[in-house]
Amino acid sequence: MTPTPHIESDVGDFASTVLMPGDPLRAKYIADNFLDDVKTINKVRGMLAFTGTYKGRKVSVMGSGMGMPSMGIYSFELFKFYNVEKIIRVGSCGAYTEDLNLYDVVIVDQAWSESSFAKTLGVSMDDRLFASKDLVKKLENSATRLGIDFVKACTHSSDVFYRQNFDDFMRIRDDNGCSVVEMEAFSLYANAIATGKQAACIVTVSDSLVTHELTSSDERQNAFTNMMKIALEVAD
Ligand code: HPA
């Protein structure tokens, strides 16, 4: 018997640091292109997970799926039942400001959300949750060492991709100081608080809600090398 219904790995199959892209095929891409000695450790529901080494250090990578409920299930199980200490979401985001260009790298130190996830989990009544300070610092240091430009920003973790009223996005941006939008960081941060573990998130701009520029899905799959290197360097 494995410890959870959604992951078929044995405890010990996961490294203490796990990178989580939304797309399980991107997890495979990271494993195939960045890791050595790779072992596939989960295929349940196609939510692929792999453990390998990066520069000799053990690291795992697993898809989170899209949205807070999906990220919420997987990250909780990893923290609580698989002895995972650190989860770094490596994803994509929409830009809310004209200052951000496609492919810019954003270290997400805080997440604002209208989601009830943290309240329902029983961890916080706040609409704004913070990434683990240590992990954010490590990501910043890693980016600086690699010479990769980044900005630090608050994300709007949205429950809805297709809103009826576009103006809602702009109101949320202006009222809460959100520079980007994605759909997972808030639940990851809530689970880290609930379990006393560490979480952070690094995202690349894949589209802009203000300039309406878009990347293609192929570009999304392949163009995130810088972000992944920043995150992989943080594994220990
Ligand atoms: N909205 C929500 N999530 C996203 C977006 C977006 O525009 N782009 C990438 N993730």
Explain this structure.
A hairpin with a 6-residue loop joins strand 2 and strand 3. A five-stranded mixed barrel has the order 5-9-8-6-10, surrounded by five helices. The longest helix is centred in the first third of the chain and has 14 residues. Helix content is 33%, strand content 28%. With 236 residues, it is an alpha/beta fold. It starts with 16 loop residues before the first strand and ends with a helix. It has a single domain, classed as Rossmann fold. Helix 2 packs parallel to helix 6. The site of hypoxanthine (HPA) has 11 residues, from strand 5, strand 9 and strand 10.
Which cofactor or ligand species appear?
hypoxanthine
Distance between the termini: 28 Å
**Chain oligomer state:** single chain
Major sheet attributes? 5 strands, mixed, barrel
The rounded Rg comes to 16 Å
| Unreliable runs | none
Report the total helices: 8
Class derived from helix and strand content: alpha/beta
CATH-level-4 superfamily name: Nucleoside phosphorylase domain
Share in β-strands: 25-35%
Element string (H = helix, E = strand) = EHEEEHEEHEHEHEHEHH
- What is the strand arrangement across the widest sheet? 5-9-8-6-10
CATH architecture annotation: 3-Layer(aba) Sandwich
CATH class: Alpha Beta
Assign an overall shape. globular
What is the domain tally?
Answer: 1
Fold-level CATH name: Rossmann fold
Helix percent reads 25-40%
Strand tally, please? 10
Overall mean pLDDT: 95
